[in-house]
Specification:
The chain has 372 residues and is an alpha/beta fold. Helix content is 42%, strand content 20%. The protein has 15 helices and 16 strands. Strand 7 (107-110) and strand 8 (113-117) form a beta hairpin. The chain is globular and about 60 Å long.
Length: 372
């Protein structure tokens, strides 16, 4: 049967969005799902028990960062990521491609792979498709990613085509190198920039290789939202209905809803933890900057419509005080709330699919949040 199995539960009559369930060696979870990002084998500011309290079912860790520190061999010797970080639910690791290719001044791309310099100490390293898979085999995540090139935005058509074809060749090499097929599902990654013909070409080439799931990469990298939606509209319908679809690096509320409407099952993003560390909070009425002076005597919760631990126990005034005093608890509380907000949003999306009203939910949420 392989490492994972996708189960389609229901399609929304109003939008075509789908409710599903993904079964992995470390449990099952319903989709559409948001995956908190634990870049270095930890979701910043959160313990594993706290993640369970907010009902995180799957988290993402970063292959590049774990390869650089502490090293995939150490993680393997510790029993894999699940044992190393004391997390017994599902884990996904990306291939490290995005991080490697973001080092534009420190790397050299060839057919064999990529030579790059560490952002930590400047030491030189080489990652090939085979090595990216070997590192992820060592890490032991339930879902792993093929090594791909994430091109910058904007990129011309010629380079985008050359890049996606190399990504397809690398995807085939990744599949051939993948050894732990019964415990780890390897996803291919669709590329092609903002070009409809290239996205279609990429899907067809990856389908020819045949993966247990497919990710869509190279979006939410600076392009207008409408361009991303157009790429999803031409890509998602070509992907198999009985396999997971993962939109990489997307986590703002509008993108989560629009992605779900277009048939995406899985999302991840550093947004809730990153903005939380800067004092920005997601609420049912839009974003607020909790460190602003106007909250100094605001004794209301961050979001009156939220029942998370933070909103049940602490006021905006107190959280502002912590942030201004640079107390660690301040950013832990904003992070906690933001993650819970997005995980609750996904629950509401799933319920709206069940009730065949995701389009209505979209309009209601956008109005409340301030998108329109």
């Amino acid at each position: 049967m392989g490492a994972i199995r996708y189960e389609l539960i229901k399609k929304c009559k109003q939008t075509g969005a789908r409710l599903g369930r993904i079964h992995t060696p470390h449990g099952s979870f319903e989709t559409p799902v948001f995956m908190p990002v634990g870049t270095q084998a930890t979701v910043k500011g959160m313990s594993p028990d706290e993640l369970k309290q907010i009902d995180a079912q799957i988290i993402l860790s970063n292959t590049y960062h774990l390869y650089m520190r502490p090293g995939s061999e150490i993680v393997r010797e510790a029993g894999g990521l699940h044992e190393f970080m004391s997390w017994d639910r599902s884990i996904l690791t990306d291939s490290g491609g995005f991080q490697v290719f973001s080092l534009s001044d420190l790397r050299n791309i060839k057919e064999e792979g990529v030579t790059f310099k560490s952002h930590i100490d400047g030491s030189s390293h080489f990652i090939s498709p085979e090595k990216a898979v070997k590192i992820q085999n060592d890490l032991g995540a339930d879902i792993i990613m093929a090594f791909d090139e994430c091109i910058p935005y904007p990129a011309d058509h010629g380079y985008a085509k050359k890049s996606l074809e190399r990504t397809s060749r690398w995807a085939k090499r990744c599949k051939e190198a993948h050894e732990n097929t019964e415990r780890q599902a390897l996803f291919g990654i669709v590329q092609g920039g903002i070009y409809r013909d290239l996205r279609i070409q990429s899907v067809k080439e990856l389908l020819g290789i045949d993966f247990p799931g497919y990710a869509i990469g190279g979006l939410s990298v600076g392009e207008p939202a409408q361009d991303m939606y157009e790429m999803l509209d031409c890509t998602v319908p070509l992907l198999p209905w009985d396999k997971p679809r993962y939109l990489m690096g997307v986590g703002s509320p509008d993108y989560l809803i629009e992605g779900a409407i277009r048939g995406i099952d899985m999302f991840d993003c550093v947004l809730p933890t990153r903005i939380g560390r800067n004092g920005t909070v997601l609420t049912s009425r839009g974003k607020i900057i909790a460190r602003d002076a106007k909250y100094a005597r605001d004794y209301n919760s961050l979001d009156p419509e939220c029942d998370c631990y933070v909103c049940r126990n602490f006021s905006r005034a107190y959280i502002r005080h912590l942030l201004k005093a640079q107390e660690v608890l301040g950013i832990r509380l904003t992070t906690w709330h933001n993650l819970k907000f997005l995980l609750d949003l996904m629950k509401k999306i799933r319920q709206a699919i069940i009730e065949d009203r995701l389009g209505d939910f979209r309009n209601e949420f956008f109005t409340s949040f301030g998108y329109q």
